[in-house]
Amino acid sequence: IVELFAGICSLEGDKNGNKYQTFDGKMAAVAFAHKSVRNARLNYKNPEYELIARGYKRLNSHVKRKQPVTTSMLLAMHRQLEADRFVDNADTNDMLWGSILLGYFFLDRSS
């Protein structure tokens, strides 16, 4: 029956099915319900469950990588801010540009 539940979880969700963490949380909820209602324990050490969980994790837990912000994107943002610069919003543009640079250099990551 775990296979059927895994199949249902792989079909629902945002186009790709549920992520592994969602599936694992749902299985924990099922185990809790079985224990509280019927005082039954589900054996998660079962090799069949381990195999299903490992396969589900491999198939439905792909990471969507984000595109990195490049220096050419930074220059394009700076040009746009300079083109929109007026006397009355110069401070706002400077603060926005500083925030962009702070986010770029402080939160820079390799992925």
Overall description:
The protein is an all-alpha fold. The protein folds into 2 domains: 2-60, no CATH class; 71-106, no CATH class. Helix content is 66%, strand content 0%. It contains 5 helices and no strands. The chain has helices spanning 2-11, 20-38, 47-60, 71-83, 90-106. Helix 1 packs parallel to helix 3 (47-60), helix 2 (20-38) packs antiparallel against helix 3 (47-60) and helix 4 (71-83) packs antiparallel against helix 5. The longest helix is centred in the N-terminal third of the chain and has 19 residues, at 20-38. It is elongated.
Spatial separation of the terminal alpha carbons: 39 Å
Approximate helicity band: 55-70%
For the secondary structure, the number of strands is: 0
Shape: elongated
Count the domains.
2
The average pLDDT is: 77
| CA-atom Rg in angstroms | 24 Å
Reading the helices and strands in chain order gives HHHHH
Q: What proportion strand?
A: under 5%
Question: By helix and strand content, what is the structural category?
Answer: mainly alpha
Q: What low-confidence regions span 5 or more consecutive residues with pLDDT below 50?
A: none
Q: Please give the count of helices.
A: 5
Provide a quick synopsis of the model:
The protein is mostly helical and 111 residues long.
